[in-house]
Specification:
The structure is a homodimer of 185-residue chains. With 185 residues, chain A is an all-alpha fold. Chain A contains ten helices and no strands. The first copy, chain A, starts with 10 loop residues before the first helix and ends with a helix. The A-B interface holds A 27-28, 30-31, 107-111, 113, 141-142, 145-146, 148-154, 156-157, 160-161, 164, 168-169, 171-173, 175-177, 179-180, 182, 184 and B 27-28, 30-31, 107-111, 113, 141-142, 145-146, 148-154, 156-157, 160-161, 164, 168-169, 171-173, 175-177, 179-180, 182, 184. Chain A binds a DNA duplex (30 and 30 nucleotides) through residues 10, 12, 33-35, 43-47, 49-51, 54-55.
Chain lengths: 185, 185
DNA sequence: ACCGGATCTGACCGATCGGTCAGCACCTGA
DNA sequence: TCAGGTGCTGACCGATCGGTCAGATCCGGT
């Protein structure tokens, strides 16, 4: 409780965060310059680096809520086994994908690159456990392929439907996930 | 027949093409410099630009075969209707994804950016028709969501299984595609 | 012996990248 | 009135980007 509430976080800070989220989602992390973000907000590039220690730090602060939810999902999956864990993973990931559409969209393709960063290394392990849960903890290549298709497909898709309301996107994603993951023996 | 056969295309040219494919797939288009490609082959950056007019031209030559197959698939889909077209699209796209795993993987996230390029604009229309065929030409958002999840999921996944042989990956992808696209009414 | 084309290179270009820094304007409490 | 912190900026830095260019090297034909 010593950091989220009661922090002033000037308006500019939040504006920069929002502008960065928009830009990163549109043109990717590497494809967005600090100049772009500054121009959107109407301040100088130096101001961006006054509010955030570095471009990486800006990304980290942007992803923090999504990562927190991902870690919580990971813990919840670990508390279940078998098909139960599969259901928890599917529902939880769809929730996460819908809620953090923009944040996930900005990982487009740069996912593996950005994970190299020491701050994000443990995310890789979490996503591996997610794939395993989606695959129903099966080693069969068909199950792992299906798991990755659904996982990547949902992550990639939710960013494309920024206009559809959550309560409509969520059941549509869940339906296709359950259909695709239905394991054939 | 005046271009593909009987062209010497020096060994360096092909090496550069192969190295670029590898690099682009690993670190993306924007994330790969001409220096990187030159270093892999063991020549100078100037040599890369001797064999290819520009970095864009290198990408175009790299994608040409995949684009040709995509255009042929588009024509084949147009020759069918309804569920028949859906099957043709699924089988055709899986074939394309498996065959051109590396080329598709390099589009990771930069897909929308690279499509801005005038050379690739018509690809956008083709992919829209592909989504429509996958959705069984339905306007229902559930169908369109499912279509995009499968399309994006396959495209994203095939690049992750560079080690699995085609004859094993193909049926696995097809199975999950048919399962996911099974339209409920 | 000479030439012309193909292949390749180092040096260089302007632009842009992420990041630093000294200092300016403003507000507030003493 | 003034000291000090906050928010912000223009000027600048080294590195790297894609791309250009003059020239070195090699090689087959005449």
């Amino acid at each position: 409780m010593l950091e989220d509430m009661a922090r002033p976080t000037t308006a500019t800070h939040d504006e920069l965060l929002a502008a960065a989220a928009r830009r990163f989602a549109l043109t990717g992390y590497k494809g967005t310059s600090l100049q772009d973000i500054a121009r959107d907000v109407g301040c100088s590039k130096a101001t961006v680096l006054y509010h955030f220690a570095s471009k990486d730090a800006l990304l980290c602060e942007l992803m923090a809520p999504a990562i927190a939810m991902l870690e919580e999902l990971d813990a919840r999956i670990a508390a279940h086994t078998g098909a139960e864990a599969q259901g928890v993973a599917a529902e939880g990931f769809v929730d996460l994908a819908v809620r953090f559409r923009r944040e996930i969209a900005l990982l487009r393709g740069e996912f593996s690159d950005l994970l190299q960063q020491p701050t994000f290394t443990h995310i890789q392990q979490i996503s591996e456990r997610l794939v395993a849960a989606f695959a129903g903890f099966s080693d069969r290549p068909e199950a792992r392929v299906a798991a990755l298709v659904v996982l990547a497909g949902i992550a990639e898709t939710c960013g494309e439907f920024l206009d559809i309301p959550d309560e409509q996107l969520r059941p549509a994603l869940l339906a296709v996930a359950y259909r695709a993951l239905e394991v054939t023996t």
